[in-house]
């Protein structure tokens, strides 16, 4: 069973007049029947590419080739759009220097790859009393990553966590 075309092609075009464009031809306004005949004479299809224009714009092209070009453009557009990935690193308020450096190196790698880094300090039990220590750790972390990224969001407390987001530097 053949699938119905999703575009208006040849006899499915309902507009009385259309602007016809194609390779090697001047954009001209035609009666729809004349435009379809012109396309058939060239062994091609008349495909409506802009139904909202006044008059609607049609192109003389092979329909399958037109679909292929649309898919190719869509694929290219998807490839150019970047996906933002947020990597998470968790610190504690009383983190050891070695552990701090280890996590810092991970964050540098993530930022070099172009990912955002979400750094959080998790307060267990009564350690929530030392919020200043957690904030100091986050600010120290951001300062150490200054050449790789900049804080997108300064430290803020959410429940038992203090969170900061660092975005990679462009270029």
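Sequence proposed for the structure above (171 residues):
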């Amino acid at each position: 069973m053949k699938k119905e075309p999703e575009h208006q092609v040849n006899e499915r075009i309902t507009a009385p007049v259309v602007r016809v464009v194609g390779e090697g031809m001047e954009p001209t306004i035609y009666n729809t029947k004349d435009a379809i005949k012109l396309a058939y004479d060239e062994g091609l299809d008349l495909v409506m590419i802009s139904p909202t224009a006044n008059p609607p714009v049609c192109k003389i092209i092979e329909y399958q080739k037109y679909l292929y070009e649309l898919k190719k453009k869509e694929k290219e557009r998807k490839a150019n759009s970047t996906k933002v990935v947020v990597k998470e690193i968790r610190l504690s308020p009383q983190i050891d220097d070695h552990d701090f450096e280890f996590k810092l190196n991970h964050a540098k790698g993530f930022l070099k790859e172009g990912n955002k880094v979400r750094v959080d300090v998790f307060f267990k039990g009564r350690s929530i009393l030392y919020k200043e220590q957690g904030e100091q750790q986050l600010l120290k972390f951001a300062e150490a990553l200054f050449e790789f990224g900049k804080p997108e969001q300064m430290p803020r407390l959410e429940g038992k966590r203090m969170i900061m987001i660092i975005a990679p530097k462009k270029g």
